Structure formats: structure tokens, C-alpha cells
Amino acid sequence: MRVSSIVSVLSGLHATSCVAADDSWPWQTYKSSAFEPPNLKITKSGPTAPGYLFFDQSWDAHQYSVFMMSDENELIWQSPFGDLKDFRVQMLDGKPVLTYFNGIGIPEPFGWGYGIIQVFDQSYQSIYNVSLLCDNYTAVGTVDSSSFVSWLDIHESTMTSDNTMLLTGYNVTRADLSSVGGPKHGWIADSLFYEIDVKTNDILFRWSAKDHVDQISLEDVQPFYPINDWGYNSSAPYGYFHINSVEKFQDGSFLISSRYYCSLFKIAKDGTVDWTLQGQTGGDFSLDGVNFAYQHDARIQEETEDKLIISIFDNANSDVENGTDHTEGIFMNVNMDKKKVTPFRLLDDSSDEIFSVSMGAVQALPGDHVLIGYGSNPKFKEYNADGSPVMTVQFGEDGVVSSYRAYRHPWVGIPNTAPDAFACNDASHNTTNVYMSWNGATEVKEWKVFGGITQSGLPPVGVAPKTGFETRASVKGGLKYVRVEAHGRGITTGVSKTVHVQAQC
Ligand SMILES: *[C@@H]1O[C@H](CO)[C@@H](O)[C@H](O)[C@H]1NC(C)=O
Ligand SMILES: *[C@@H]1O[C@H](CO)[C@@H](O)[C@H](O)[C@H]1NC(C)=O
Ligand SMILES: *[C@@H]1O[C@H](CO)[C@@H](O)[C@H](O)[C@H]1NC(C)=O
Ligand SMILES: *[C@@H]1O[C@H](CO)[C@@H](O)[C@H](O)[C@H]1NC(C)=O
Ligand SMILES: *[C@@H]1O[C@H](CO)[C@@H](O)[C@H](O)[C@H]1NC(C)=O
Ligand SMILES: *[C@@H]1O[C@H](CO)[C@@H](O)[C@H](O)[C@H]1NC(C)=O
């Protein structure tokens, strides 16, 4: 058979939109890969910060995975299937790594989980699992925990520059709830947080809300999360604190966020509460132009001698209260001398107001851009330095899918797996259509295609520039065997298996 050349590279046709019977969101399909990422609805009105979009899919997702996708709706990397959350790039030993929670999530009205945090290197190899094995936990009564390998919760997996990770845990335990009208021998879901060494899993710090009821009283949470019928048994523990983020101050103390107290707390190294910033009453502060409720993702954005800027995702909505105030991203000045909190930046899109009842995240990006992931509402928005929305991405129907957190990060991935290829004969055009992809390979610039009628010694039949997650090329003649090779910066492997060409397309 003669060596023929690529006659055409068909771009833009690799993404097929399908609508499921249950009328969920359309997804993309490929010939060379079984991944089916959502078809992103992208509205862009200005430049965005560099990097890819990172998100998970929860609730009624088509495929339970985490996704790395481009602003052009192209899949970059999709994880193996699982109940995975909080997918992002962090630094370990000064090198970028990927991290996510892998376990099970217990749906609202509980809203926490049990699992491990996985750490992957730039070749997508699993290099560390952060886990909590023997801290004598009890799960919510409806959950069979006999097979659990670790008790770490969904909510936090932030890495520090010391190669440690800040983590949360939810332990069902007994508590006296009589002071707030509950049972004397009641049940709570205690909120714990940890600092754990990523490489050894040694627990360096442990804190429990239950141990500090003297400073964080059950009475204070009643206006925002009344006890009602909670706490009578271990299947309905009173999850009154609901920790949802942990961050470290320079002096080694911690900033934590409690959903139901609508509060941020500064926790000293001895575990005591240094201060409380309550979103409605102020707590130890006076609020001037800022208020928040049921917030997530409290982050220290700037910390100097005389300045503290904290960002939060202000849900303003929850399973207790919804539909009055819209959700926004808040960056606030916390003046420690005057004990006063004022707005620094308030971010929302007045043309598309969102009422997010759970989850969510706010990420500061280069150029004073901000990415907001709306949690229970399957949308992200990027805002520019003026606070104007420059991009909206939707990946599902409201109320059907959600993403715990969303991020934007630059990323270079060189997988240690082989690329995938699929080929079929299009007899009517006397061509062989070749489809190739390589999950997670960010650096591929072009594909070399080899083909022939015997399996060994396949000659080159053409070169195709990469067009997206899957590149399709059409080669003259009816081939029987095809192999593809990826080329680009840093790629030293990148050869697919030799695949048998399907007789019909
Ligand atoms: C981490 O756990 C996953 C899931 O059980 C497993 O596949 C992987 O090999 C583990 N990685 C390491 C470094 O132990
Ligand atoms: C672990 O917790 C159970 C209650 O769930 C208790 O009976 C047991 O004594 C605890 N064990 C340890 C080692 O603390
Ligand atoms: C978790 O709760 C059990 C009681 O159900 C208790 O024995 C155990 O000490 C608690 N673990 C932690 C880490 O607080
Ligand atoms: C636990 O308490 C809740 C709320 O009071 C109740 O609906 C539920 O039936 C109880 N479950 C068990 C197993 O007793
Ligand atoms: C919350 O309120 C908004 C605005 O009224 C509404 O669109 C949304 O469906 C509500 N969400 C839930 C979960 O009730
Ligand atoms: C199909 O294409 C091949 C390669 O270009 C050529 O050798 C062959 O004659 C063609 N067959 C037909 C039926 O056109």
C-alpha cells in the first residue's frame, strides 16, 4: 500500500451533544475516549486570566468525575469516576500537584463526607493519599462505615508551604442539648479540623468545636440554625457548627468558617477563640457595609502588620433561609485596631443574580480578576479588576448538578499513560478516519499517524495539528492498522497502541 498523506483535519466536529432522557444538560462524546464531559455554555465579554477551569460534578451529574476544561469548551483532563470534590492545583515541595477529595458525600441536610485527599504529580500519578485512619470516629447513623478507609471530610484540603494540609472532619458524638431545648443525652455532628503532614499523615494539630462550647455556645447558633427535631438519635445528629473552610494565619493560628453560625473564627494555637466575626451581628467587630450568612471558603487574601483582607463566598442562602438576599463574593477589610469590618470588593452580576443555598468558592486570580464558583448553582463567573463579569460558564441545570468549588489554574500535564486512538473505514470516500486523544496531555502540538495493512512496520501516513481534546484526521485509502504519536514540548513517550481499523464508520 502506498504512503498517503492526511487529506483533511476536521476540527470542531469531535463534540457531539446528546440530551439524556431525563432532560439533563448536554455532554460531549469522543470516538477515542469514553469520557463525556459537560458541554459548557460559555459567555465571554472580555479577557480572562490564564489557565484552565477546574470543577467537580455533584448531584445528578452525567459522569461523576472532576474536570479540567478550557475556556473553549475543550476537555483537558477528566479523572477516573468517583464522588470527587475540590479539584485544584497546589504546591508540594515547590512543585505543582493536583489534589481532590475522594470518598462519599452525605447529601443535605447533612452535607459532609468521609474519604481521603489524593495528591497527583504532573504525570497524573497518585503520589500521596492524605487520610485519617484511627481517630475513633462515628458516622451518621444511616451510614455503614465498616468499609471506610479514612474519615476526612469534603470541605477542606488546603496545602500549606510546610507540606502540610488543612482538613476537616465530622464526628457523630453525644452532647447535652438541653440548654437549647434539645435532649440531655443528645447527638451532634461535631466539627473538627486538622493540620496533617501530607507525606506521613501525622496529625500536627486537632481542634473540635465541641471542646469549645464555652466560647462558641449552642445558644448563639439558634437564630441561624434552630435545633428543631435534631439531636434525638445518631441518624439525625444536630450538625450545628458545619465547618467549611480552614486557613492559616502567619502566626500559626487558624481562620475557620462555620456555615450555621454565619461566622468566621480565629482559633489560637492553644485552641481558644481569639475573635469571632459574625456576618449579621458582627461578633467582636462592628460591620459597616458588609453582612453575610451561610458563607463558604474564607481566605486570607492579605495579611500585613496593619492590614487584613479576608474573602468569602457569601451564600446568603441555605436550607434554612433562601430567596431574600442574593449570593456574592466579598473581600473585606478587617481592621483589628478599630475592630471594624468594611467592604474592599463586592462581586456580583446584577444581570444574573444567584441564590446559592450550599457550597461555593471565591478565588483571587492574577490581574485582580476573581473567579467565583456558585456551588449549588452550576455556574462560574470571572470578574475583572473593575468588578465587571467577563465570563459566565454554565455546566448544568439549576437544581440538577452542582460543583462544591471551582478554580482557574495554569497547568502543564504530561501523562504517563499512552494516547488513545480509534480508526474506521469510510468506504464511500475511500478514506480511513483516525481519532486520537490523550487525557491530560496539555503540550501536544501535532499528531503523527502511522498506518498500513499489516500490523508490523507501519509507515507514516500523515501529520495532523492537534485541534482539541480529540483530533480527527482523514487518511487516503482503506487502512487495516493504525498507530498515533503525540509530539510537543517535553513529550518523550506518547505512542498509542496499534489499533485495528473498524470496517465501517
Ligand atoms: C491512594 O488511594 C487510591 C484509592 O484507593 C489508590 O488507587 C492509590 O494507589 C493510592 N495512592 C497511594 C500513593 O497510596
Ligand atoms: C471510641 O468511641 C466509642 C464510642 O463510639 C467508645 O465506646 C470507645 O471507648 C472509644 N475508643 C477509644 C479508644 O477512644
Ligand atoms: C468521635 O465520637 C466518639 C463517640 O461517638 C468518641 O468516642 C470519639 O472520641 C470522637 N472522636 C474524636 C476525634 O473526637
Ligand atoms: C431520628 O430522629 C428523627 C428526627 O426526630 C426521626 O425522624 C427519625 O425517625 C429518628 N430515627 C431513628 C432511627 O430513630
Ligand atoms: C432559592 O430562592 C431562589 C430565588 O427565589 C429560587 O430561584 C431558588 O429555586 C431557591 N432555591 C431553593 C433550593 O429553594
Ligand atoms: C483508494 O485509495 C487508495 C490510496 O489512495 C488507492 O490506492 C485506491 O486505488 C483507491 N481505491 C478506490 C476504489 O478508489
Automatic annotation (TrEMBL):
The keyword Transmembrane helix does not apply. Transmembrane segments: none annotated. InterPro entries: Arylsulfate_ST, ASST-like. It comes from the Eukaryota. Residues 1-21 form the signal peptide. Keywords: Signal. The keyword tRNA-binding does not apply. This is ASST-domain-containing protein. The lineage of its organism: Eukaryota, Fungi, Dikarya, Ascomycota, Pezizomycotina.
